[in-house]
Structure formats: structure tokens, C-alpha cells
Design goal:
The structure is a homodimer of 193-residue chains. With 193 residues, chain A is mostly helical. Chain A is built from 9 helices and no strands. Chain A binds a DNA duplex (19 and 19 nucleotides) through α2 and α3.
DNA sequence: ACCTGAACACCGTTCAAGT
DNA sequence: ACCTGAACACCGTTCAAGT
């Protein structure tokens, strides 16, 4: 009697690969922030010992790199691509802030928090900032500003966004989501008249 | 032969009190940020074992509370008091940004970074934000804005400041100190015309 | 190829025992 | 009153040994 080989992947493979760890890591990042991307707890949740981890990754930092790369692809690239499609510059700016402000920016803030300790996070934030400032600056130029002025305004705009996100997270800004949204619009109206 | 009792405090007392730990903690905070306020390294630098620490404090968190309180008294209260003395509102605003931007805001940024993990830090930042926004708002009112408008502008202004501090720290903002100062002035001129 | 198990280093916390 | 010393829990990292 010959047994048919199983053609569908087993529900829970006994052996893991890099992919499994990365998935679990991203999940942990979304639930508990950068600190939650930790070897021992992850190993526990995968039903395996810590030693197993080090066959797939050289260090916890390497895992974090991979996890952040994934996060960036999903949560940053997609969003920016969608924005580029909006032609009216003012409307595009509005959409950038709308998107950024609506869903709780928890992961973003968690990344801000971790930037100091984690070089990998620093790099992600740097890219994120550069790209968003570029989107903002382009919209400003299309709205009629000089390149230098556009860059200044865009930078301030992004800085204010970062600051508002931070303040909302740590409770320095006690405002309802509605008030926050109004403040964002106010910011745009003030900086890009 | 009777020995004279020593009237000056010994250079290194064999026994420590709360004060010694707080001092060492503040020093550590300034050198290495919130994470550096750690029991074991501190004990080591004080030439004592970890067990000693727990006679003076209930936990590492309690130490951090005390250290932050001290930091706030020295680095926040003093500065704000000095500002209140400037009568011209525009000049006062300029001075607030000057002071905040000139000396590297490293501790401030470190606090921003730690807010997520450390409730004590959150409280400090909350107070700091409230007070600075109040100073900004008052200056705006004195410059002729309505109270509501003043509050909005002040909040945006502070948010931009927080964001700029953060971005400078993590390298998202690659600008010279001179450029940063110019940007700060630009911010003020834009938000408080 | 992937994993276990035990080791070591590091930090937070507790506590009985010392002075 | 203040401190030691040893214990325990937790996480990161290494590595010889298993399948």
C-alpha cells in the first residue's frame, strides 16, 4: 500500500523557515511594538526553543530588519503610490493627512519611540520622512511656490505631523479625533495658503 | 590620645542615601538616556551591590520618577520662568525657540523616545507640552489673535518643534544647525504673522 | 536542514543574614 | 540604618549534540 504524498502544505509544519519567523515578527510588531519583536517570546509562540531562531537569523537585529522591511512595503509604499495618483495638489495634501491621521498611527509612533535604540528603525523613518516631504514639496510647487519655499513648508508640515502623532500618543494633546482632524486641516491651510 | 572627629563629610561615604542614588541617576540620564537609569550599572558605579538599591527605593521605576522630577525642575522650570520675563510677545517666542533649538535637545528627544514604555516620562512630557503651549498661546493672544486661533497656532507650533527635534535626532532632517535655526524662524513667521 | 538543551552574560526583584 | 550574597525570573547569544 503506497501512501499518497500530501500536496497541500501541512497546517502546522513541524519545521520552520525564515518566512515563519518574519510573519510572527510582523505580527508581534503590530501587536506590541518594536520591543515585542523578541526572540524568546516569539520562539514560545511558535512552539520552539530559542536555539532554533539562531539557525535562521544571525541576531535579533537581523529579524527586526526583515520585519521592518515588510512593514514598510505594506504600510508605506502602497499608501504613497495611491497618493501620487491624485492630480490636484491641494487635494493630494489633504489625502496624505487624512490617511495618516485617521487610522491610529500607533506603529508609526512606536517606530518613533524605538528609533533611538534601533538603527534599523532609524533607517525606515529616514526613508519615510524623505518620501513624504518630497510628496508634500511637490504639491507645494504645483500650488505655485518656489522650490526653496516649497521645501521649507513641506518640512515644517511633516514635522508638525510627526509632532502631532507623538503628542497624541503620549497624551500631551488631549483632543478628540475630530479636533485633531480639524487641526490638521488648519495646519495645511496655514502652511499652504 | 583622643582622635578628633572628622567635621567635613568624607570624600566617599561608605553608606549611601536616597540622594546619592538620585544624583547618580540624573547623571546617568544625561549621559545615556532613560535606559541608562538602570539598577545594576548604577550600583556598580556607586561601588555597591544591587541589593543595596532596594533598601532606598521600591523599584527602578521609583528611582526614575525621582530623577525625572529633578530633571524637570532644573531644565524646564528655570527656562520657562526666564521666558516669562520678556514682555514683547514676538521676542518671547523667538527666545523660546532659540533656547530649545540651540543646545542639542538630546535629553528631550530621549524622553520622547521613552514615553511609550515609561509612564513617568509620559507625565513629564505632558506637563512640558502643556506649559510650553500655554506660553506660545499667550504670546499669540498678545500679538492680537483670538483665544481659539491662538491655541491652534500654539499647538501647531509646538508640534512642529517636537517633530523637528525628533527628525534631527534620527537623521530624517539633514540640515546644519544654521539651517535648522532658519527653519525655526520661518516656522514662527509663518504661524505667527 | 532544522532543532534541542544547556551554558553564559545581563538586568530586575526579593530576602535572609550580616554590620 | 544600610548593605551583602545568593536566589529566581527574563531575554540575548552560542554551540555541541541530536534527528
Amino acid at each position: 500500500m503506497t501512501v499518497q504524498p500530501c500536496t497541500v502544505p501541512a497546517v502546522s509544519a513541524e519545521r520552520l523557515d525564515r518566512e515563519d519567523w518574519l510573519e510572527a515578527g510582523l505580527d508581534a510588531l503590530e501587536r506590541g511594538g518594536v520591543e515585542a519583536v523578541a526572540v524568546v517570546p516569539l520562539a514560545r509562540s511558535l512552539g520552539v526553543t530559542r536555539g532554533s531562531f539562531y539557525w535562521h537569523f544571525g541576531s535579533r537585529g537581523e529579524l527586526l530588519d526583515g520585519v521592518l522591511e515588510r512593514w514598510e512595503r505594506v504600510h508605506s509604499d502602497e499608501v504613497l503610490d495611491a497618493l501620487q495618483a491624485i492630480e490636484d495638489p491641494r487635494r493630494r495634501l489633504g489625502a496624505l493627512f487624512e490617511r495618516s491621521a485617521s487610522k491610529p498611527p500607533s506603529i508609526f509612533v512606536r517606530l518613533l519611540d524605538a528609533a533611538d535604540r534601533e538603527p534599523a528603525v532609524k533607517a525606515v523613518l529616514e526613508r519615510s520622512a524623505r518620501r513624504r516631504i518630497e510628496v508634500l514639496a511637490q504639491a507645494c510647487r504645483e500650488a505655485g511656490m518656489s522650490p526653496a519655499e516649497a521645501r521649507r513648508r513641506a518640512t515644517l508640515c511633516y514635522a508638525a505631523y510627526v509632532g502631532l502623532a507623538r503628542m497624541t500618543a503620549d497624551g500631551s494633546l488631549d483632543m478628540s479625533p475630530r479636533e485633531r482632524a480639524a487641526l490638521s486641516r488648519h495646519l495645511l491651510a496655514t502652511l499652504v495658503p
